[in-house]
Amino acid sequence: MGLDVAGLRVLISGGAGAIGRVVVSTLARHGATVVVNDVIPDAAARELLPEGTGYTPGDCADDAAAEALLDAAEALAGGPLDAVCCHAGIADSHPVTSFPIDSYDRIMSTNVRAAYLLARAAGRRWRESGRRGHLVFTTSWVQDVPWPEIAPYSASKAALRSLMRSFARELAPYGIRANAVAPGIVGVGMARHQWDTDPGYRARAERAIPLGELQTPESVADAFLFLLSPMAAYMTGTVLLVDGGASLYPMDGGAVADPDAAP
Ligand SMILES: NC(=O)c1ccc[n+]([C@@H]2O[C@H](COP(=O)([O-])OP(=O)(O)OC[C@H]3O[C@@H](n4cnc5c(N)ncnc54)[C@H](O)[C@@H]3O)[C@@H](O)[C@H]2O)c1
Fold first, then answer.
1. Could you tell me which CDD domains the record lists for this protein (predicted)?
2. What share of the chain is helix, strand, coil (3-state, %, to 5)?
3. What is the pLDDT of residues 1-48, one digit of tens each?
């Protein structure tokens, strides 16, 4: 028993993204056979993903996508899947009183509905075949925190956590598990750029993260590795929160001044 995922066949949606490709590299380095779904063209994915990674392009939010996606992933992985990671996600930022409703719908469709369709199809397949599969959902520390201007995103991640627990509860009798990884503020893309170039953002983010540093994508990948390994075999219905303590603070931590002050 250990952090051993050798031989596991894993599908991850959104696996060509900033966090996803580090998850893919980590799992592949530890011997898993990984298949990625993402919306980017095949050639671009080949450049981003480690050699040997299967790639099946397509919009996982399409109603008809889930079954075809599982078929393609099984063909590329050379057999039935052991784990399906519903990781694709999008975000947008507007005040709660003026959030565009088409953006709200896109966020819910990708972050909740697409994940549900994929997990539902995988769960059904495992249940019918008697296979003990594992669903892993990517939520976020903001599933519990009303960080300003991302209300639909926070709501989508809270919904995803709830769906995860329903999958865990209903499929446990078949030996099928469901868990979630909840990252904090990961230092990739825009967050990294702002951290490096905007002192105001950096000061605010430092207040928001008790450990004081942006999260690395490697720390998220390590959480996936642990959850997919035999060390987590008795875990189901759990959120593995890996956020540097961000969710301990209300919003950006401005209210937490003196740790010795009376509550
Ligand atoms: N970056 C963070 O700080 C952070 C924190 C907590 C949670 N997360 C979550 O981690 C996941 C990855 O985030 P990221 O920061 O790597 O973002 P990212 O934009 O780099 O990656 C997301 C990937 O999903 C793909 N995608 C989007 N819609 C899709 C669809 N309909 N079908 C298939 N693929 C689709 C995108 O092409 C992209 O490659 C998301 O679920 C996000 O909500 C991110």
1. SDR_c
2. 45, 15, 40
3. 678 899 999 999 999 999 999 999 999 999 999 999 999 999 999 999
Specify the DSSP class assigned to residue 216.
P
Q: How many domains does the chain have?
A: 1
Q: Say if 161 falls within a structural domain.
A: yes
* Mutation probe of ligand 1 site: the residue of 21, 142, 164, 186 with most atoms within 8 A of C-beta: 186
Cα radius of gyration (the chain): 18
Residue pair 137/228 in contact by the 8 Å Cβ criterion: no
Mean pLDDT value of segment 186-197: 87
Is 229 designated active site?
Answer: no
Active site residue 153: yes
Domain with 60 in it: 9-242
Does residue 4 lie within any of the structural domains?
A: no
Ligand 1 atom closest to residue 40's alpha carbon, by position in its atom list: 37
